[in-house]
Design a protein that fits this description.
About 40% of the residues lie in helices and about 25% in strands. α4 links the parallel β5 and β6. Strands 6-5-1-9-10-11-12-13-14 form a 9-stranded mixed β-sheet, sandwiched between helices. A 5-stranded mixed β-sheet has the order 3-8-7-2-4. The protein is an alpha/beta fold. The protein has 11 helices and 14 strands. It is globular and about 50 Å long.
Length: about 300
Amino acid sequence: MMKSILGFGNALVDILATVPDDVLLQKYDLPKGSMQHVDEVKSNNILKDLTELGCERKSGGSAANTINGTARLGMRSSYIGKIGDDELGKFFHDDQLANNISPQLLIGKSSTGRAMVLIDKIAERTFATYLGAAIEMTTEDLTDEMFDGYHYFHIEGYLVQNHDLIRQAVKIAKDKGLFISLDMASYNVVEENKDFLADILKNYVDIVFANEDEAKAFTGKEPEDAVKYFADYCKIAVVKIGDKGSLVQGGEEFIRIMPIKANAIDATGAGDLYAAGFLYGLSHELPLDKCGKIGSLCSRLLYT
């Protein structure tokens, strides 16, 4: 039987634009390569400037990107998030439907969240994120029925700052027998929530995805030691090390996945699609090395 997956995250519309220089970064006080939270007014002003440059829209957020990937690979895929009752919210909903995702979207009081993605000539991304309705998600929004019929549950780390919400979600998922995966998402989120993450990893999470900065923030160790450290907390650990590939630890099994070379155009969502490919491989009960290779291949598709 084909396995199915449910994602959970901040429902955001990605507004992507290539910027010729750092003028807009300086104008809006956005450190290059960072992810900054901005209010709605600042977000609207940035949007005006990006529209003049030429931009595109995609339904986004880390977990939504992963679920988009699993759906494209053929897994039955669904997504829980909160949007606004507005044009961007309709875009998010319709885009998920168009990509064969079954959206479980709640309507919040604020406008739909958006991530303004400023991409420079060497594909480095700077984010200005307005969370909007996405941040209004509460424990009362989650019902047991949302989780029925799924085998995997994937959470983005950007939600981890809402401890009660995440704890409720993983408790329902665990009670339903779902295989739980967590993408750590950001090193600063890890630093601010280390004790909570340790508890969640130990008691609920089956597989964790982290890049080397996130792994260092949690473990204090370099990638090879970090992936082994993670594996003491959950069944499978993955540490992505950029152009050096990725490391996988499952029990006593350690695997180094070599990268697939590609021309970097836009790295937005590369790690999210790695998780999609890896989870797709797991859903077919493939060995961990094959799962890592599928993840690496999926992340590469963004670059060509």
